[in-house]
Design a protein that fits this description.
The protein has 245 residues and is of the alpha/beta class. It has one domain: 3-Layer(aba) Sandwich (Carbamate kinase). 39% of the residues lie in helices and 17% in strands. The protein contains eight helices and ten strands. The strands form two sheets. Strands 1, 2, 3, 4, 5, 8, 9 and 10 form an eight-stranded mixed beta sheet that branches. Strands 6-7 form a two-stranded antiparallel sheet. Helix 5 packs parallel to helix 7. It is globular, with a radius of gyration of 17 Å. The two termini are 20 Å apart.
């Protein structure tokens, strides 16, 4: 397939049973910002289903933990727990709970169990929708999405969270911070650093960013709460976001 020069066009590089495959990293900040956001989930599932049924597309969706993960991690720390791996396992359980909820909402479009090991679990090539939760300590579900993208031979991950773009600095702290539409992985890591901490707030997990750079996978970060943006990115149309490659 010949690729367009447009930054949002042609990122699928594999067809399975004549269907385009997309890998989405869905931030827990959208699923459980404070409580479970049922309005968002209904809108998101309806949006994806339209592409599945009308445009012959397939989706691999990896869910984050959101506030439920941080609530339990904070409880662990308040109880004098200080093992980072245990804190990660608590977060992983929250991502898998969110994944099970999302899988259930897709009903027959997502017939198989959620993925809990992106390296070894089946790819379920005949399923319109596949949902994955977290996997192991030391990284976020962004990393899991990249593992799955590599297995599906998809060269771009769409990363949806409550962040519209990556900025040159934290806009809440720096009034001079500017949004970026494109950047390199090295530029991104210069902003975030290279270390992972459970419960961290990053546009993208630094461990995942380093892995994406090493395997040459592009990530587009955009606000997933806006279904117009979600739809535009899936269609390959220009919209607000940050492309990192």
């Amino acid at each position: 397939m010949m690729k367009s020069n447009h930054p949002y066009a042609g990122w699928w590089s594999r067809k399975v049973k004549d269907k385009r495959v997309f890998v989405l990293s869905l931030g827990g900040s959208l699923i459980v910002p404070k409580d479970v956001d049922t309005e968002f989930l209904y809108a998101f599932v309806s949006c994806v289903r339209r592409f599945v049924r009308k445009e012959n597309m397939r989706f691999v969706i990896v869910t984050g933990g959101g506030s439920i993960a941080r609530t339990y991690q904070q409880a662990y720390r308040r109880s004098r727990g200080n093992q980072r791996a245990e804190e990660d396992w608590i977060g992983i359980a929250a991502t898998q709970l969110n994944a099970q909820l999302l899988k259930s909402l897709f009903e027959d479009d997502c017939p198989y169990p959620i993925i809990t090991n992106p390296q070894d679990d089946p790819l379920y090539d005949d399923a319109p929708v596949v949902v994955s939760g977290g996997w192991k300590p030391g990284c976020s579900t962004d990393y899991d999405a990249l593992i799955l993208a590599e297995r599906y031979h998809v060269d771009t991950v769409l990363n949806f969270s409550n962040i519209r773009q990556v900025y040159t600095a934290d806009p809440a702290k720096d009034p001079n911070a500017k949004p970026l539409s494109r950047m390199t992985w090295q530029e991104f890591l210069a902003i975030t650093g290279r270390k992972w901490k459970p419960g961290s707030h990053f546009p993208l997990d630094p461990i995942a960013a380093q892995y994406a750079a090493s395997v040459h996978i592009r990530v587009i970060i955009a606000h997933g709460g806006d279904m117009d943006i979600v739809s535009a990115l899936i269609r390959g149309e220009p919209c607000t976001g940050t492309t990192i490659e």
